[in-house]
Structure formats: structure tokens, C-alpha cells
Automatic annotation (TrEMBL), chain A:
Location in or out of the cell: Cell inner membrane; Membrane
Segments traversing the membrane: 48-67, 79-102, 123-148, 160-178, 190-210, 243-266
One of the record's GO molecular function terms: ABC-type transporter activity
Database matches in NCBIfam families: phenyl_ABC_PedC
Protein name: Transport permease protein
Coiled coil: none
Automatic annotation (TrEMBL), chain B:
NCBIfam families to which the protein is assigned, alphabetical: PQQ_ABC_ATP
MF terms (GO), sorted A to Z: ATP binding; ATP hydrolysis activity
Protein name: ABC transporter ATP-binding protein
Keyword set includes Nucleotide-binding: yes
InterPro entries tied to this protein: AAA+_ATPase, ABC_transporter-like_ATP-bd, ABC_transporter-like_CS, ABC_transprt_ATP-bd_su_PQQ, P-loop_NTPase
Amino acid sequence: MSSITTRDVPRGFSAQEYLTCLTGIVWREGLRFLHQRERFVSALVRPLVWLFIFAAGFRQVLGISIIPPYETYILYEVYIAPGLMAMIQLFNGMQSSLSMVYDREMGNMRTLLVSPLPRGFLLFCKLLAGTAVSLLQVYAFVLIAWFWDITPPPSGYLTVLPALILSGLMLGSLGMLISSGIKQLENFAGVMNFVIFPMFFASSALYPLWRVQEGSPYLYYLCEANPFTHAVELIRFALYGQINWISLAVVAACTIVFMIGAILAYDPSRGLARRGPAGGEG
Amino acid sequence: MTAPAPNAETHETPRPEAAAVPALSINGVSHAYGARRALTHVSFSVQPASFTALLGLNGAGKSTLFSLITRLFGIQSGRVAIFGHDISKSPGEALRLLGVVFQPRTLDLDLSLTQNLLYHAALHGISRREAAARSAELLGRIGLADRAGNKVRDLSGGQMRRLEIARALLHQPRLLLLDEPTVGLDVKARADIISHVRQLVTEQGIGVLWATHLFDEIMAGDDLVVLHQGKVLAQGQMTHVVAEAGAQDVNTAFMRLTGAQTMPGGGA
């Protein structure tokens, strides 16, 4: 019987096994998303409310000058569309983290974590799956916005895709990092107040930063330092077939930092290890 | 339930005396949550093709132990090995050989039975075709083949447990851990699950660690580990443990063992 140990257990994993695992996790996340129609509807209604109501009301208040990547005067709706695309991903990233806390409380997370594949890879798959779901939401929004005269060049729908994947990964790994620090589901309201709202409002999503600078230089610096601003700008430029290199660098760097942080936080010998079922020390 | 084991041809009839490497070995494992000690120097092993009952009251440390074996928590001190593979040093090899049924339900309620099984198979890198074949076979063995496309939400508690056991067997593990799997089930469902798991031991030579606080789930031939306040108070064959405690049955033996331990000054 001792031969079981050596003969029956292959060392390491083949590329095929990694791929099977990745597609399995994305497939399951997609299925779950399809089963939660309310989540899809609310993910869509939120930016549309901003677009149809807020932007319409603010159109007259805020004048937008010609700033890159735009080549003409644009309507306010056109300006905030990329910000709303990023907002969808921000909410989705935080919602995925909410579901991870939920999964951990309910035990679903355990099924994932007892997989023999390396844990960092499992979490990366989970992030990719969350990003894929956010892409579905963003493209549904962009489709509706098109009827609202938000019409970037047709090629923009393609060039924005890599930007959306990167920003989705960044916001998803930020959510995952936060979720590792949340002990209970109820604490998620705090995430809304302390993460989502400040990130969204202190960014270039709703107003161009030069206008912010006129009002408050300090807020301007805060906005410049906000990774969400760079996610928005990355998407904005990509939507018009351009690359904002600074934003690309910031988003890429933040993605790497947040992802490593999240993977370390879920490493049993570090993060979760110190938290027991009864809470223990943080 | 009478179908032959799916992987019977790859394993000769298990002979306990030939089992040099234990299915599970736990050596000097201690664990603390902050200042609170949950496990103190726990050591025992589970042999292949054996049914080992881990008996302890709620809060004895059973779930902590399960979390350590399944690598949900890091090991603070001591060593856990599955068929000789250290869970900290080579988790991939160790977890491949391990199937787990956790105490809380861990199924996706909105997905179908088959979808739940396919997801689990994917997590183990089992190809879709292979996974579909194994899922169909296992669903047949637990008598749920005709429900394959139904949502898990529509199943009864006992059926869900059987599905979870089938899921834990999907990647053909050699060691199966079950954490109080019969809690909340009616008498019939309990009996079904116990006999199913015992069948796995005798027919497929799987080593089973069965955590419970229910004395009547333990039989004379089983190995028994008594865990109380994070310490192993007794271990060995059930009849020996009972005899050494000078008792007639497990119930009395347990009371005697733990009664002595909870006296003032016992420490924890």
C-alpha cells in the first residue's frame, strides 16, 4: 500500500490541468452570474441612473473644454461614460469581495481552497472570472449608452477591451485584498463608505481634474494619487484608440501590488492563518 | 450501491498489516487563536482501509483540526502528512489524495447536481469528459442519477450530504475526512450515510476520519480518538479504549475520560 505515495501521485500539475481549472472557475462564476439576474440588473441600472439623470441635470452646470483624448467639444454624458464603465467594475470588484466573505462564512470558499492546485493560481482564476463578469456588465452598459448618443469610434469598443481587463483585475484584486481583512459580512457597509464612495468621487470619473484643481489643489493631488482615476483615464483613452501611458503604468503597478497582497493574505501560513473561527486577533 | 468500485482494479485488496505509510498522520500539532489554545500536542494516525472516529464534544477542537489538515489554516507547530506527503511542504500532492466533507454545506444551491460535480472536478484539473463520466457514475451510486439536472436547492438534507460525499470522491482520494456529516439528518438518512461510508472503507480501501459527537455512530472494530479541550485523551481500537477506561460502552468511557480531565487544575 505504501506504493500509493510514490506511484499514484504525480508531482506538480500539467498545463492542461491548470487550463481545466481556470475554465472551470470562470464557467462557474458565469453560471452564478446568470442565476443572479437582480445583480445584473442593478449593475446596469446604477450607471444608467447616473447617465440618464445626473448627467442630464449637470449638463448645463459643467462645461467641458477640449481635453485629450477628445478632439471636439463633448457633452457631459460623453465625458462621464468612461467613469461609469470604471464604476461598474469598481462595484463588481467589491461585490466579488463581498461574495468571498460570504463564501467564507458559508463554507463555499473551502471547496475552492482545498483544490490541490497552487492557491495563488486559484485566486488569480477567481479574479479573472470576476473580471470576465464585469466585462459583460460594461459592454451591456456601453450598448445602451450608444442609443444615448455616446458613440466612440467603432474600433474603440475593441481597443478598450485590454484596458477594461487590466482595470477589472486591479479593482478585483483590491476587493480581494479588502475581503481578506473583513471578518464578517456586516462589515461590508463600511467598504461602501470607506472605499467605494471616496474612490469614485475623488477621481476624474465625474469631473476633469483641471476643474478640481481650480477648486481645491489638495483634492487635486488626492485625485491624482487615486488609482481609480488612472483606471478611468486608461479606459477613457483606450475608448478613443489611445494609450495614456502614465495611467497604464499606475494601473499595472497597482494591479501587481494588490494581487500579491491578496495572495499573501490568503496564504494559510500568513493572513487567514491568524484568524480563527472565533475571531482571534486580527 | 452494489456497483463495483470505480477504481477497484488499480488497488489490490487492502491489507492493513501491510500499510507502512498511514493515510493520515498527525504529529505533535498545536494551534492557538491568539491567547486561546485550541489544540495541544495532538498526535494520532489513520490507516488506509480503516474507519477512525474522532470523538469530541462541540468545541473540542475537531473543526480546527480539520482546517489544519485541509490547509485552511497554516500549521503553527507539529506536522500533518497525508500518505507521507507533508501538508505544508508539498500541499499539492497531499491534497490530491484527500477528499473532504465539511460540516457546513458547501454546495452551490442554484447550480445543478452535475454542475456542482463538474466544478469540483475542474478544481482538481480533471478534464471535462472524464469528469462527466465520473459524475454520472457517482450520481448513480448514490441513487440520484435521475436528479442530475435539478438544482441542488431542491434536494433534501440527506441527499445533499450524499452528493457532498460523491463530490469528495470525484477525484478518487485515498483519504476521506468527514466533519460531523450526519448533523441535522433524520434517522434513515443518517443510517444510509454511515453505511455508505463504511462500504467505501471495506470495498475501496479508503481511509476515513469521521468526526462526531454521537456515540452510536462508532462500532466495535473502529479506531477511536477521543479529543477533549484540544487534547487527545485516548486512542486505539474502540474496544480497547472502552476496556482501558474500565467501562462497558463508549458513552461511559467518554464520560470517565473527560470527567477526569475537567477537574479543577486540569488546565487548558
